[in-house]
Amino acid sequence: MAYARPLTLVGLLTATSLALTAPACGGDEPNDTDAGTSESDGESDGESSDGGATTDGPSTETASTQSGSDTDGETTTTDGTSEGPTTDPDPSTTSTSDPTTDPTDTDTDTDTGGVTEMVMCGDEPPPGAQLAPPLPTYGGICPTIETGIDNLNVLPGVTTIFGNDIMIDREFMVFAPDDIGEEEQLPVIFMWHWLGGDAKGFANRSEVEDAVNFYRFIAVIPNGRDIEQGLLFKWPFSITDSMKQMEQDFQFFEDMLACVAEQFGVDKECVSSTGVSAGALFTDQLAGFQGDRLSSIISLSGGTGGLTVKPWTSSGHIMPAMVLWGGPDDFCIAVDFNATSLDLEQNLQSDGHFVVECIHNCTHATPPFDPPMDIPTYSAMWRFFLDHPYWLEDGASWYTDFGLPDFYPEWCAVGVGNAEIRVGECGGSECQ
Question: Percent of the chain having pLDDT more than 90?
Fold first, then answer.
């Protein structure tokens, strides 16, 4: 059984503008407020440039070596493979950049994952659609997963220190709805924190406990590795990180997914990844090497390329992407996040990915939005991942036909180069 569409979803499209906020950079925290506020932890991404602009990108052979699971995609039968309600939101409540588009026009063929109707995770794939591969299986004994802010789950992992492989504990939090149906299959999103953050900080700032109940999904938030565990920037994305170090975190991703799927019903057609700053830089590497697993990505002040960050690696799956950053002055320590975000966008566009672009003007800082009154603060992020199941045609999104839902900020737009940067006051950079 597919996961249940929220009863309030139709009403969501009539909500007012979204407050999509996220911490931007790791380090010391700014003035502390409630976890429910939209303020960042003010972290600092202390990457250092090594002049490695000509360093070759990592080999694409890695994805085929992970976890031993079948990575071949599936296709639907004529009856489809998913259950669940198919009631569509009212298209009249969405905004569109094309005033000539008729949102009621449904004459175009939709048999191959097209976008002439509003679809979301849990809807039945059309006949012949390319489906996600089977979920991975874990080679050991999974822990009994405890959910919530006070519970860290542990899996055994490996790290490399001075050329030696050492066993370490890898920690992660899991958040799920309070009342999961016996046969309910839930979407899953992985959330990778910023340099100065941790799983608990990301959970608090994203208000994820409210969101998983409102939208009915599972969130998995791991802790990164410390410098004592052989990794300088919590996640492996820099030109100084070896392919072996990247493979260790790719395997951690597979192991977490396998163990979550062992205990919960998981919709394999809706497994997404997001991150903030250092976590976004890793998400953008994960998209290249583990893209066959992902239905979408959301990069919040991340990117690829430059003197410090590894280049883009083309993905085995053409997935929708949201790319958000703080404008031309989004810089922290040794990373020009404006340049890396633009590089990511250009690579996504060249490879045929659908892109939503969002640009504010507050540099490496919390995007300055007021939270909506009746939907979760990060609704644009949650809805982006829920509105884009794996089986959509390459480069497709119903956002192209109907426009962005009306609670998206005005400085977001469909397509690379189409967003108009925000104008207004800001609180200043939070990179320290």
Answer: 60
Query: Per the domain annotation, does 68 fall within a domain?
Result: no
Virtual torsion, Cα 389, 24, 18, 117, nearest 10 deg: -20
Tell me, yes or no, whether 395 lies in a domain. Answer: yes
Helices 379-386 and 208-215 cross at an angle (nearest 10°) of 40
Digit-coded pLDDT (tens) for 191-228: 999 998 999 999 998 999 999 999 999 999 999 998 88
Residue with tokens 């949102």: 103
Tens digits of residue pLDDT in 49-77 = 343 333 343 333 333 333 333 444 555 44
Domain region containing 394: 17-27+151-432
Closest listed residue to residue 196, CA positions, set 378, 47, 334, 363: 47
Asked if residues 122 and 187 have their Cβ atoms less than 8 Å apart, the reply is: yes
Angle between helices 243-263 and 278-289 (to 10 degrees): 80
Local structure of 402: helix, strand or coil = helix
> What residues contact residue 37 under an 8 Å CB cut-off, 6+ apart?
none
Where residue 305 sits, what CATH number does that domain have? Answer: 3.40.50.1820
Bridge-based pairing of strands 153-161 and 296-300 is unpaired
Instruction: State the total domains in the chain.
Output: 1
To the nearest 10 degrees (0 to 180), the angle between helices 208-215 and 199-206 is 60
Burial class, 105, CB count within 10 angstroms (exposed 0-12 / middle 13-18 / buried 19+): exposed
Q: Which of 231, 341, 346 shows the shortest CA–CA distance to 277?
A: 341
Q: Is the separation of the CB atoms in 276 and 304 below 8 Å?
A: no
Q: Are 385 and 272 in contact (CB under 8 A)?
A: yes
Vertex 356, ends 353 and 360: CA angle to 5°?
A: 140
Length of the chain in terms of residues written: 432
Distance CA 181, CA 333 (A): 46
In a domain? residue 326 = yes
Q: Residue 79: inside a domain, yes or no?
A: no
What pTM did the predictor assign? 0.76
**Structure tokens belonging to residue 193:** 């924190």
Print burial letters for 307-332: b (CB count within 10 Å at least 16), e (below 16).
bbbbbbbbbbbbbbbbbbbbbeebbb
